[in-house]
Amino acid sequence: MPVSTSYLARETGINLRRNVAMTVAAILTVAVSLGLVGGALLMRQGVNKATLQWRGGIELSVFMNATASQGQIDAVERELKSTPEVKSFSFVSKADALKEYRKIFANNSDLLDVVQEEDLPPSFRIVPQKAELVDTIGRRFETRPGVSDVVYAKDAIDKLLKSTRQRQRAYIGVAVVLLFGAVLLILNAIQLAVLSRRREIEVMKLVGATNWFIRLPFMLEGMLQGVGGAFAAAALIYVFRVQIVDVISDPTLTQGLRSLRATPAEALGTGAFLLAIGAAIGAGSSALAVRRHLRV
Questions:
Q1: Pair 146, 68: CB distance under 8 Å
Q2: How far apart are CA 276 and CA 278, in angstroms?
Q3: DSSP secondary structure string, 65-98?
Q4: What pLDDT does 254 receive?
Q5: 4-19, pLDDT tens digit by residue?
Q6: What separation in angstroms does the CA of 32 have from each of 45, 179, 246, 269?
Q7: What integer pLDDT is reported at residue 255 of this predicted model?
Q8: Do residue 47 and residue 57 come from a single domain?
Q9: How far apart are CA 186 and CA 283, in angstroms?
Q10: What is the enclosing helix (H) or strand (E) of 128?
Q11: C-alpha 110 chain-centroid distance
Q12: Domain boundary residue, one of 117, 136, 153
């Protein structure tokens, strides 16, 4: 027996209207739980960008003042060349720093517009001969004229990653509990819909309705609940992406690193992922409820 679109829409609408309170509760629970998941994902993406400058074995960076003279920069460079503990180093000019900044925030015009080349300090990124020589090199350059700060990759990144992992585990843990609650709410909603239409379903079976003809409206109901909650979470994540990352990250751990930021493209990608999860949760929960209670 073919399933028409009008039949699906009508039957799904009837089921949703019969369980308004439980439907709203399921949508809100899915929204909150997936919102936590989305926030954790945005934070992870922000950390990946914040640590971009430390890839390639770089263990510390010597940041010059934005107003440092060329003579001061040249003096630090000469000393780096003559320091035996230094295996290699690279100089990042203001122009290079701006290019890197634009690469990181390519999809965020608001952040690109407020930063100019003269606002970014030049720096030296250093790879030591051995990891244990990092402190020795750093202390040597901390007091040099024109040097603003010496940032140690190991300390900064270890603290940041540790904090990120802890926060992610906490958010994902709470999200899993809430998602389990959302699954139960969707299951109960579908069960109530099935029980309230038992006689109608029996008649449909007697006239030759197939299993999928009966199942689809209930599955669509559950999927709509999951997608509705996921859409709400995705919309909130997109609109408040900057505030979410600021709230759930620890700004004291990003000193010397790039600030954690989420671009619109990243928020949209995360939102699409949440929609897929919401649809899967809703459809899966309703399919389980129908299978258990229809026995068809």
A1: yes
A2: 5
A3: PTT--HHHHHHHHHHHHT-TTEEEEEEE-HHHHH
A4: 46
A5: 677 667 767 776 777 7
A6: 20, 9, 18, 18
A7: 46
A8: no
A9: 9
A10: strand 123-128
A11: 20
A12: 153
Phi/psi region, residue 187 (left: phi>0; alpha: psi -120 to 50; beta: rest), is: alpha
How far, rounded to the nearest angstrom, does the alpha carbon of residue 137 sit from its chain's CA centroid?
36
- As a whole number, the mean pLDDT across the chain is 77
Cβ proximity of 260 and 47 under 8 Å: yes
pLDDT digits (tens, 9 = 90+) for 41-89: 877 776 666 655 555 556 788 899 988 899 999 999 999 999 998 888 9
Residue whose entry in the numeric block shows the structure tokens 């751990």: 253
pLDDT (0 to 100) of residue 156: 63
Concatenated DSSP letters of 217-279 = HHHHHHHHHHHHHHHHHHHHHHHTHHHHHHHHS-GGG-TTSPPP---HHHHHHHHHHHHHHHH
**Identity at 158, one-letter amino acid code:** D
CA dihedral (39, 43, 44, 48) in degrees, to 10, reads 150
**Domain match, 226 and 85 both:** no
Of 153, 175, 198, the residue that ends a domain is 153
**69 and 38 both lie in a single domain:** no
From the CB of residue 92, how many other CB atoms can be counted at a distance below 10 Å? 19
Residues spanned by the domain of 273: 5-51+158-294
Do the Cβ atoms of 186 and 225 come closer than 8 Å? yes
- Give the pTM: 0.58
CA–CA separation, 26 and 74 (whole Å): 63
